[in-house]
Amino acid sequence: MSTLYPSPLSPRRSAVNVTRTAARLVLVLSAALSGFTGLVGCASDRPEDVPKTAALKAEGDQRVVYAAEQDGTVWVTERGSNDILYSGQVNHGDRLTLDPDAGKLLLNDRVVADKGVGHRDHKVFFLPGPPVPSPSPAAVAAARDVALARPPQVPANAVVKGEGKDRVEYTADADGSVWVVDTDNNSVVYSGYLRRGDTIAIDPKNPKDNQLTVGGRAAMTGDLPNHSRRVFFVPGRDPRLSGDLVPSSATPAAVVVRDVTVDPQGRPAGVPSAADLRAEGSGRTEFIPDRDGTVWVVDASTGRVVYSGRIVRGDALTVDPTAGRLTLNGRPATDTTLASGDRYRVFFRGGL
In whole angstroms, what is the distance from residue 346 CA to residue 327 CA? Predict the structure, then answer.
């Protein structure tokens, strides 16, 4: 009696093999797809600026509330674009509320963002501990502003404090030098020295001769053109006295030079080399010394000294080419008529 064995090609055996093979393929493909999905998820899980060690604490496209369980740093991101909507330091118990209906992100009921808050999928990441170290805002601004185009009179370490075509205002938070630059033609409209608390305001909508003021007083005459302007500022002592100016063609780490705005022909023989350039412009310029000394006013177009004399701390020397006048404390300081359109430089040397 012979024993019958199922043929390798029998329908029953083939069906079993196919089923087992399909199952294995499903498992392999599932694992591969799972791994691939995991890789994709890791790559797009968070923006690059969010540390990998920060934990995902909440997400959604509706109202989201997260209460910090300890001190740390929080990031709110938009999933689709990977934009960071907000980041900052939080303390234990702080509540972060994302309210798409109101279009606001609040930290302890204080609005910290009101743009880009809509019904889009957002994520809240949290990293415990002290804030993640980052450059100070001043350092970031300085690094950014070094690359901005500027006239040679404006040092490379001057930082932009305001910019615009209409009203621009800046109140100095420290003593320092200020430059107002016409960005359309890259020229200096005004330069001077500000004391802490002084406000420089540029407003073309004001009446003529009152469109650029310092401390509420007109600092130039005439109408400002319909151009954009930038306000540059360097804090500290007057850099023309301390030698802190950095030439615009150099980096802030360059060797310090004095009188960087004066070319060799800009100082007539009658002006001593120890005298520092304190102001320059073709419009109304006012110079108020911080100590007693001697002043020289030079027509930069001709190289001629139009005035020189003693001046004491607090005196106000006003050079007004448009009006053709040079006054000291409101009184005419010379009979010479200033030429309208010429640039004038004010040199000063302290002491006897």
Answer: 13
162 in the same domain as 122: no
Residues 64, 56 contacting (CB under 8 angstroms):
no
Helix (H) or strand (E) segment spanning residue 144: helix 137-145
- Are 122 and 161 found together in one domain? no
Query: What CATH number is given to the structural domain containing 321?
Result: 2.60.40
Asked if residue 283 and residue 236 are part of one domain, the reply reads: no
Looking at residue 185, its amino acid is N
More confidently predicted of 136 and 22: 136
Domain end: 128, 163, 178, which one?
Answer: 128
Q: Tell me the residue range of the domain where 303 lies.
A: 262-352
For residues 90 and 54, give the distance between their C-alpha atoms in angstroms, rounded to a whole number. 14
Domain for residue 219, yes or no?
yes
Contact between 345 and 298 (Cβ < 8 Å):
yes
- Across the chain, mean pLDDT equals 76
User: pTM here?
Assistant: 0.42
Residues 6 or more apart whose Cβ sits within 8 Å of residue 183: 149, 163, 227, 228, 229, 230
Give the position of tokens 């108020």. Answer: 288
Task: Give me the percent of the chain exceeding a pLDDT of 70.
Answer: 74
Q: Please, how many CA atoms are within 13 Å of residue 257, restricted to the half-sphere of its CB?
A: 16
pLDDT in tens, 10-66: 555 555 454 555 555 544 444 444 444 333 334 457 888 899 999 998 888 888 889
288 in Cβ contact with 316 (< 8 Å): yes
